[in-house]
Structure formats: structure tokens, C-alpha cells
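Exercise: predict the structure of this protein bound to magnesium ion.
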Amino acid sequence: MSSHNPLASSRIAVLGYGSQGRAHALNLRDSGLDVVVGLRPNGPTWHKARADGFKVAEPAEAVKGADLVAVLTPDMVQPALYRDAIEPNLKPGAALLFAHGFNVHFGQIVPRADVDVILVAPKGPGALVRSEYERGRGVPCLWAVHQDASGHAEAKTKGYADGIGGGRALLIRTDFKEETETDLFGEQAVLCGGASELVTKGFETLVEAGYQPEIAYYEVMHELKLIVDLFYEGGLARMLQFVSETAQYGDYVSGPRVVDAGVKARMKEVLADIQDGTFARNWTAEYAAGLPNYKRLKQADLEHPIEVVGAKLRARMPWLQPNTAAAAVAPLKKAG
Ligand code: NAD
Ligand code: MG
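Solution:
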């Protein structure tokens, strides 16, 4: 593939070696492309990238001479990284690639006019991007071109998506606005925010009605995995095929009572806050202030009674134990 890849004679700098960075760097290299990894010296993943055999340099050094710079650090550190390490060192005509459009879409990064600005967002965590590639397959990717200075931005984007394996699966064209807004909405309203509130409110309802917390935990948190796995494998049809008629009837009559038109109206409010920049403004200010509310709200989640009973019950699920450490070091940033 690499001989036909438009990036075949390009130098690619991958900044960040976390969930996405490591998977992209390894896949690009295995696709025959030239990769250098940019990291803070002796930062948490510096030695890991070295041990994987990469040439590792400080971000500013990695950017010098690169034809494509993949910005795969946490979103909130990208504006300063762009200002300090990328912008002063990026070659004219080079490509700046993101895996999430947040900073460009909300104007936190305004890239120079002489560079391409492109996006390849795998629809899966880095570990899956890597393991599917190793099996000769790939994870579907969204791709977009925000700015085409070289006239080759689209070819470079597809070359990168092919290099990480996405081209073996499915490439869906989008733009930075759609990728950013739908990604934020999904994680807020349905995945992280919506699902955790649905579970904890269900748990509280049962416990306040006098039922044992252990049993409430199994019913509203533990068993959610079985349902989500069925959604993942075959959508609503597969879920309905595998649950009892009683569960189906209860679904039809009670689901819409809980998640009603009022919930949908508030989902639209959440979406409006994302679209008009209110969420991005609040989150950027919260981050700049040292995360006071974030830390308080996170602590409250961690101290919720469902966490106390959950830890106790999961300790008796031996099949979970090997995964627990891995899950703790590789937090699910987002399912989307
Ligand atoms: P991560 O937190 O797993 O890894 C971040 C990496 O950046 C680490 O190697 C860290 O050491 C390094 N880093 C942190 N600060 C740095 C700095 N100042 N300079 C240089 N390196 C620094 O991040 P991630 O989850 O892989 O996310 C990277 C990007 O990919 C983000 O834009 C994110 O939105 C996007 N994305 C993530 C996923 C996912 O599943 N995790 C999926 C799609 C898109
Ligand atoms: Mg929550």
C-alpha cells in the first residue's frame, strides 16, 4: 500500500503517544511510512515510544522537517503546543492533522494560512485501531479538510487514513463542525453523561424504595453491558431478539415515560450550547481556572453509593480482575 500512498516520501511527526498517538504511529510505520514521535522529554510516554523503536524528539524538533504533523495530545493542551512548538517550526505547505476538530472549530487554534488543516478521526479507541490493523483490518474513520493550502490536502488525508488502516474499513467524509459537534453531543447527552445519569438515577430509585444496593447495582449497572453489547452487535433488533417478551413490553410502555419529550427538549438545549460555543467557552475557562468544578463534580461521582457497592461486588467477579489495571491506565476518553 505504501508505494501508492501519497505520503510515501513524507516525514510524519506524531505528537502524543497515548491512546490514539501510539496506535497511529505503529500503524503508519507498519504501512511503510516514515514516523517520528514528538513528546516532552521524559514525559509519561517518552520511554514507551522509545521502547517501541521510534525516533523520539521534543515536539518542536519533531515538527521541523515534517511534511505532516498529527496533533494527538489531549485537546486542552493543543493550543499552547501549537503556539509554542508547532507554528514556529511547521514547513510551508505541510499538513496539520487532528483526530478531533474541537480546537480548530472553536477557534482555539487558528492555523497559519500556508498549511493544510485536515482531520482523521477513528471511530474507536486506540487499542482497537491497533489490534484491527494487526489483523489486516481497520477501524472506520471520519475525515475532513478544513484548509487546503497545498492543493493536495484531500490526498494527504486519505493517505493518512489508509496508513492507520481506516481505508480497509470505511472512510466517511465530514467537516470539522459536524465531527466536533456530534462528538461532543454524543458523549454529553447519551454516552458518558446520559448513560451515567440514567444508571445512577435508576440505582437511587431502587435504593430509596428500600431494595438492597447490591441487587440494585446488578439490575441497573452491571446488566447494562449485556444490552449495550447487543446494540453494538446488531442494533435494537438484536436486543429485542434476546430479551424476554415481558422485558420488551416493559421497554415499549415504560422507556418513553422515563426518557420523554422533556428529555429530548433538553438534549436540544445541550446541542444548542455546543453549537453556539457556550460549552466550549465554559470548558476552556474551567480548564484555565485549574478545573475547580470538574474536580468537585468528579469527586461526587466517585463517592456515589453505587461506586461503593460496585467496588465490593466487582471484587467478586474474577473475570474482571485482569482488565481492571488496564482499564485504569487507559481511560475511555470517549466512546464516540
Ligand atoms: P491521551 O491522553 O491518551 O494521550 C495524550 C498523549 O499526549 C500522551 O502521550 C501524553 O504524554 C502526551 N502529551 C500530553 N501533554 C503533552 C504536551 N504538552 N506535549 C507533548 N505531548 C503531550 O490522548 P488521546 O485520547 O489519544 O487523544 C488524542 C487526540 O485524539 C485528541 O484530540 C482526542 O480528542 C482524539 N481522539 C481520541 C480518541 C480516543 O479513543 N481516545 C478517539 C478519537 C479521537
Ligand atoms: Mg454523570
